C-alpha cells in the first residue's frame, strides 16, 4: 500500500505557518485601511459638496437681497415722479393764485408732494455673509468680497440718508402746521406750506432726490452684476431665486382679515368695572 502524505501538526513547516499568518494580517490591515480611506474620503466629499451648496445659497441670498433693495429704490423713484410733478407745479405758480384755491384741492396736491415712505434695509443677508467672511477669504475671491462690501455700504448709506431726509421733511411740515394751523386767523395752512422757505427748498430738491434714487439703484446693480460674474452665477438665476423667496407660501389658510379681527369699542353704558364711580360723578354734578 502506498504511503499517504497526511498533513499533521507535526509535519507542518513552521515557516509556512508564519508566512500565512503575516499574509492574513497584511490583508486585514490593507482592508481596514482601504475601508477607512473610503469612509473618510466619502465623508469629505459629502462635506465638501455640502459646503459648496451652503456657499452657493449664501451667495444667492446676498445677491437677491441687493436686488430687493434696488427694487425698493425703483419703487420710490416711480412714486417720486408724482411728487416731483406736483412740487414743480406748486413752485412755478403765483402764490396769490394758489391762495385762491379750495383748501381740499390744495391739500390733495400737498399730500402728493409729501413723501413719507421710509427705506428699510434687511441686514440678515449681510450678517450671514459677515459670519462666513473667512470662508470667502480662504477661497481667494477678494473681488467678490470687495464688491459685496461696497453694496452693503451703499445700502446702509441709502437707508440712513433717505430716512433722515424724510424725518426732516416731517419735522418741517409739523412746525408749519403748529405755527399756523392753531391760529384761527391763519387761513389755509396748506398755503403756508407753499410759502414756507424750508418747505419750498424741500420741494425744489425732490427732483434731485428722484435722480439720486435711480442712480443708487443702478449703482447697486452694477456691482451686483460684477458679483455674479466673479462667482459664476447668472442674473436670471438670481431673479428666479428672488421670485421664489417672495412667493407666498400656500398653507391652505386665509390671510388675516383686519375687519374681522377688530375688537368693538367698550359700551359706555355697560362699563361694570367703573360703574361704581358713576355715583360720585352724578353726586358732584347734582351739587
| SS content category | mainly alpha
Uncertain residue segments: none
Mass-distribution shape: flat
Percent of sequence in beta strands: under 5%
- Number of DSSP E strands: 0
Total count of helical runs of at least 4 residues:
11
Helix % is: over 70%
The largest pleated sheet is described as: none
Mean pLDDT: 78
The N- and C-terminal alpha carbons lie at a distance of 148 Å
Q: Spell the H/E element sequence.
A: HHHHHHHHHHH
Radius of gyration, in Å, reads 38 Å
Task: Give the SSE layout.
Elements: H1 14-91, H2 95-98, H3 103-113, H4 124-131, H5 133-139, H6 142-181, H7 189-195, H8 197-231, H9 235-246, H10 258-261, H11 278-286
Helix pairs in contact: 1-3, 1-4, 1-6, 1-8, 1-9, 3-7, 6-7, 6-8
Describe the protein in words.
- 75% of the residues lie in helices and 0% in strands.
- It has 11 helices and no strands.
- Helix 1 packs antiparallel against helix 3, helix 1 packs antiparallel against helix 8 and helix 6 packs across helix 7.
- It is flat and about 115 Å long.
Brief overview:
With 287 residues, the chain is mainly alpha-helical. The protein is built from 11 helices and no strands.
For this entry, give a set of tags:
single chain; 287 residues; mainly alpha; 11 helices; 0% strand
Amino acid at each position: 500500500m502506498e504511503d499517504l502524505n497526511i498533513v499533521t501538526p507535526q509535519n507542518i513547516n513552521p515557516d509556512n505557518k508564519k508566512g500565512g499568518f503575516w499574509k492574513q494580517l497584511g490583508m486585514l490591515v490593507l482592508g481596514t485601511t482601504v475601508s477607512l480611506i473610503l469612509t473618510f474620503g466619502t465623508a469629505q466629499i459629502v462635506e465638501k459638496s455640502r459646503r459648496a451648496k451652503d456657499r452657493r445659497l449664501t451667495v444667492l441670498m446676498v445677491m437677491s437681497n441687493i436686488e430687493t433693495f434696488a427694487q425698493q429704490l425703483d419703487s420710490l423713484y416711480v412714486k417720486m415722479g408724482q411728487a416731483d410733478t406736483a412740487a414743480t407745479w406748486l413752485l412755478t405758480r403765483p402764490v396769490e393764485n394758489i391762495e385762491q384755491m379750495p383748501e381740499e384741492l390744495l391739500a390733495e396736491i400737498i399730500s402728493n408732494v409729501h413723501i413719507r415712505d421710509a427705506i428699510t434695509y434687511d441686514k440678515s443677508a449681510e450678517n450671514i455673509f459677515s459670519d462666513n467672511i473667512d470662508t470667502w477669504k480662504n477661497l481667494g475671491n477678494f473681488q467678490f468680497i470687495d464688491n459685496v462690501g461696497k453694496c452693503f455700504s451703499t445700502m446702509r448709506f441709502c437707508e440712513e440718508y433717505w430716512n433722515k431726509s424724510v424725518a426732516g421733511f416731517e419735522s418741517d411740515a409739523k412746525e408749519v402746521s403748529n405755527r399756523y394751523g392753531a391760529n384761527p386767523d391763519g387761513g389755509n395752512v396748506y398755503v403756508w406750506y407753499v410759502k414756507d422757505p424750508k418747505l419750498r427748498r424741500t420741494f425744489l430738491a425732490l427732483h434731485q432726490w428722484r435722480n439720486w434714487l435711480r442712480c443708487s439703484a443702478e449703482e447697486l446693480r452694477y456691482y451686483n452684476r460684477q458679483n455674479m460674474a466673479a462667482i459664476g452665477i447668472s442674473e436670471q438665476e438670481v431673479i428666479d431665486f428672488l421670485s421664489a423667496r417672495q412667493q407666498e407660501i400656500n398653507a391652505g389658510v386665509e390671510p388675516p382679515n383686519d375687519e374681522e379681527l377688530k375688537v368693538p369699542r367698550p359700551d359706555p353704558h355697560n362699563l361694570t368695572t367703573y360703574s361704581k364711580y358713576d355715583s360720585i360723578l352724578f353726586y358732584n354734578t347734582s351739587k
